[in-house]
Amino acid sequence: MKRAARANINLAALRHNLNRVKQLAPNSKIMAVIKADGYGHGMLRVANALADTDGFAVSCIDEALYLRESAITYPILSLQGYKNERELRYAAEYGVQLVVNNEQQLHLLESIDLPAPVDVWLKVDTGMHRLGFMPEHAGRVYQRLTRLNAVNKPPTLMTHLACADDPQHPMNARQLADFGDAINGLAGKQSIASSGAVLALPHCHRDWVRPGIMLYGSTPLQDGDRSRDDLKTVMTLKAPLISITQARRGDGVGYGGTFECPEDMPVGVVAIGYADGYPRHAPSGTPVMINGRGTQIIGRVSMDMVTIDLRNIDAKLGDEVELWGEAVPVDEVARHVGTISYELLCGVGGRVHFSES
Ligand SMILES: *Cc1c(COP(=O)(O)O)cnc(C)c1O
Question: Quick one: CA dihedral 120, 38, 13, 308, positive or negative?
Fold first, then answer.
């Protein structure tokens, strides 16, 4: 009997999802977003599986250098750019493309002598209010960038949508219009779309799309559905049943006794908990699957264990319980927990054993 929780990563599904991006945005190049350890799937595993992409986007220089040290020769883009001169030098040395997000980064670029020029992406903040230059400054920043020997020309022009999970949201049109105004007359490739816009806003595809979550088979859309969008689940998270207890009607289950048994019933104990990334906030009723049968967790999630309802289920010790994956959509689990699939996937913990199929 295996005690450990395990995550299987379906590489064929990952490639299928990349192909979906290609079908949806046939005229765009693809920066596959693999930050946060490939959304919890293993950054290098994902990078090695996605030979058909045009490049990889990560969040920071450390992630980019990890890929370079692991012999990934594709274009790599650091979405947060660089934090200091050291990182900027590394980026030039290892050929990492950089998003220039703010005045400090621009100033650093202007005051340095680099061993080789870098490819930069000029980010315009059209409403996220996180990273990027205000639209009214974009033209001036562009002029400063294109004056530099340290920079390959022209820069790519990018922005990020705050409400891409809701294609009808008026914010999308506003951001698009502001981006259009900001870059009016500036030469350079353009990039707007993360997964939501890849799926639902084709006029945002432009030259480079930046899909993340859809590669992993989860829908970014609020009302999305992985089968309608023809996305295939990549991660399946399972853990074995390590105990079965008989509880009586009225008994509480787990810490705080938050689940009260409505009748005499068998309770299964599964070897996974919040230390493995199964969310502690998952309430009673969150779906799981065992032996092809759907059931639910009951009581609070513990650090190393979770309890499930085994009424009307034929199960024995060692049987595997699917927490999310091919049978139990991670999006459905996320809805129960009150979060998004992104958080669940990238939270899968260090004790979990990974395999590939
Ligand atoms: C994370 C990220 C993406 C990918 O977003 P998804 O919703 O996962 O597709 C794209 N662009 C930027 C700037 C990001 O930070």
Answer: negative
